[in-house]
Amino acid sequence: MSLLSVSDLSILLKSGEGQPIVDRISFALEPGQRLGLIGESGSGKSLTTLAVTGLLPPGLRATGSVLLDGTQVIGARDRTLDRVRGHAAAVVFQEPSTALDPLMRLGKQIAEPLRRHRGLRGAALRSAVAAALDEVALPTRVAGAYPHEVSGGQRQRAAIAMALACRPKLLIADEPTTALDVTVQAEVLALLDRLAAAHDMALLFVSHDLAVIGKVTDEVLVLSQGRAVRTGPLAEVLSNPGDDYTRSLVASARRLDAALDLTPEVSDDSRGA
Amino acid sequence: MRRRAFLVTGIVLVAVVLAVALLSLFWTPFPAADTTGGRLEGPGAHHLLGTDKLGRDLLTRLMIGARIAVAVGAGAVALGALLGGAAGLLAAFANRWLDDSLAALLDILIAFPTLLLAMLVVAARGASLASAIVAIGLAMSAIVARLTRVLAKRVLAMDYVTAARTSGVSWPRIVWAHVLPNIWPTLAVNLALQFGLAVLAEASLSYLGLGPPPPNASWGRLLQEAQSTVLTAPVGAIAPGVLLVVLVVGVNLLADGLRDVADPTRRRHR
Ligand SMILES: Nc1ncnc2c1ncn2[C@@H]1O[C@H](COP(=O)(O)OP(=O)(O)OP(=O)(O)O)[C@@H](O)[C@H]1O
Ligand SMILES: [Mg+2]
């Protein structure tokens, strides 16, 4: 059985006005499998991930079918979903500044899911928090800090530690590195890659950048204006882009790769991607 | 630091009034209804601040006034915080239709003058300390509700709430662990300011003769009674005014200082 099976998912305004924001997309994830969701800004990537866990903002509704770990998410009551959430899926968001509660020490935020899902208390809880921090390569003293007292990269690591604390079968990462600078970005990507493999987690990775997606997954689904325009192995999409949008994505990924490889003396050459 | 000095000043001013109010519960120079003093005596050894038209000791009346001011401020803030906080949270969680209706209702309540509302309550229940608290607390709860609604909505839209929901944390738990702590600093500052406004509102009510009945007169009534004799016995008019200013300025300074204490992201050093 698939861990996540999405078929004909559409997202519409509750008022019923206008076009669907996401229009009949389908995909599936087996346990441990990875999928990159790529598309331009506003194409519906974030809403798709929210629909997967049944957390669409008020004012929007989803139709179609989303089976998450055997539970139908669409139309399900909160009570039902609360039982699936946590064990089945966890999320890491783009903005580390809003992904953590500014008024709660990091250690406490990481302890929350450990307490709830694994029933840990006292000394066992403290050592689990230390282990969770260690796993994302954060020093133990970070536990006593507020989010504004650590760097953006550290915040994102803490958010990852929180998401992993429930040992979810599926990790949803919504542009987790976009707000970070390039070196930190590479570190966080490597961390996600390593942890997903270590815990045999499935990964739904959202980005608008093929070069970033290429670092963690081999399968992609290309969204454009709410429609799935391409889906398949990354290598295939790269060699044979098909539609115009995918072609432009590939071109910009090539340019970025080229820019990273460029030596100073040819840096002003456009290389005519 | 300048802010620190403001906070300390605020605490001292409020503490003085609080201490006087507490003391008045156990001891006043004269009984509240004592009229044995001479008419409009000036300050002297027997009556430290002099007496009023009926020969009552002014210091005694001021102390009792402090008690009434603090009681009304605290009572109205408690009522406003509970009622307004609950309504605001409800609106933040409500569906579009209920939320819009509540927001409209709050706007109407806020536009309604506090004094007019207070007069209606007094007309219905009679003038008393409790009436003043209910009237002012009701008016305050509309303001608190509107603020709570906006603040809570902002927290609910944050990624950390979505992340918590994704990992199966229930709504009540989210309100307790994330929403309340995050709206509290702003709310507490606002409530402190509302305390000052409540004291002023009560003084206005009493000035109009709608406050607690004599002999337990509030500062507003003292001001009103001293009005006709302000030239011959100025202390009677000045003293309640000064105390009113001390308390209101005190809570305002306190509110400002509180903002920094309650919010770790605003603290410079840890
Ligand atoms: N709460 C909402 N109500 C109505 N429309 C919304 C809401 N949230 C998002 N939308 C619309 O849905 C579309 C898709 O939004 P979404 O956030 O999924 O885009 P995205 O692909 O994640 O973009 P980005 O790369 O910028 O994060 C956007 O056009 C947006 O205007
Ligand atoms: Mg997005």
Automatic annotation (TrEMBL), chain A:
<comment type="similarity">
    <text>Belongs to the ABC transporter superfamily.</text>
</comment>
<dbReference type="InterPro" id="IPR003439">
    <property type="entry name" value="ABC_transporter-like_ATP-bd"/>
</dbReference>
<keyword id="KW-1003">Cell membrane</keyword>
<dbReference type="InterPro" id="IPR003593">
    <property type="entry name" value="AAA+_ATPase"/>
</dbReference>
<keyword id="KW-0067">ATP-binding</keyword>
<keyword id="KW-0472">Membrane</keyword>
<dbReference type="InterPro" id="IPR017871">
    <property type="entry name" value="ABC_transporter-like_CS"/>
</dbReference>
<feature type="domain" description="ABC transporter">
    <location>
        <begin position="4"/>
        <end position="250"/>
    </location>
</feature>
<protein>
    <submittedName>
        <fullName>ABC transporter ATP-binding protein</fullName>
    </submittedName>
</protein>
<dbReference type="InterPro" id="IPR027417">
    <property type="entry name" value="P-loop_NTPase"/>
</dbReference>
<keyword id="KW-0547">Nucleotide-binding</keyword>
<keyword id="KW-0813">Transport</keyword>
<dbReference type="Pfam" id="PF00005">
    <property type="entry name" value="ABC_tran"/>
</dbReference>
<dbReference type="GO" id="GO:0005524">
    <property type="term" value="F:ATP binding"/>
</dbReference>
<dbReference type="InterPro" id="IPR050388">
    <property type="entry name" value="ABC_Ni/Peptide_Import"/>
</dbReference>
From TrEMBL, chain B:
<comment type="similarity">
    <text>Belongs to the binding-protein-dependent transport system permease family.</text>
</comment>
<feature type="transmembrane region" description="Helical">
    <location>
        <begin position="187"/>
        <end position="210"/>
    </location>
</feature>
<keyword id="KW-0812">Transmembrane</keyword>
<dbReference type="InterPro" id="IPR000515">
    <property type="entry name" value="MetI-like"/>
</dbReference>
<dbReference type="InterPro" id="IPR035906">
    <property type="entry name" value="MetI-like_sf"/>
</dbReference>
<feature type="domain" description="ABC transmembrane type-1">
    <location>
        <begin position="66"/>
        <end position="255"/>
    </location>
</feature>
<feature type="transmembrane region" description="Helical">
    <location>
        <begin position="102"/>
        <end position="123"/>
    </location>
</feature>
<feature type="transmembrane region" description="Helical">
    <location>
        <begin position="230"/>
        <end position="255"/>
    </location>
</feature>
<keyword id="KW-0813">Transport</keyword>
<keyword id="KW-0472">Membrane</keyword>
<dbReference type="Pfam" id="PF00528">
    <property type="entry name" value="BPD_transp_1"/>
</dbReference>
<dbReference type="InterPro" id="IPR050366">
    <property type="entry name" value="BP-dependent_transpt_permease"/>
</dbReference>
<feature type="transmembrane region" description="Helical">
    <location>
        <begin position="64"/>
        <end position="90"/>
    </location>
</feature>
<feature type="transmembrane region" description="Helical">
    <location>
        <begin position="129"/>
        <end position="148"/>
    </location>
</feature>
<protein>
    <submittedName>
        <fullName>ABC transporter permease</fullName>
    </submittedName>
</protein>
<keyword id="KW-1133">Transmembrane helix</keyword>
<feature type="transmembrane region" description="Helical">
    <location>
        <begin position="7"/>
        <end position="27"/>
    </location>
</feature>
<keyword id="KW-1003">Cell membrane</keyword>
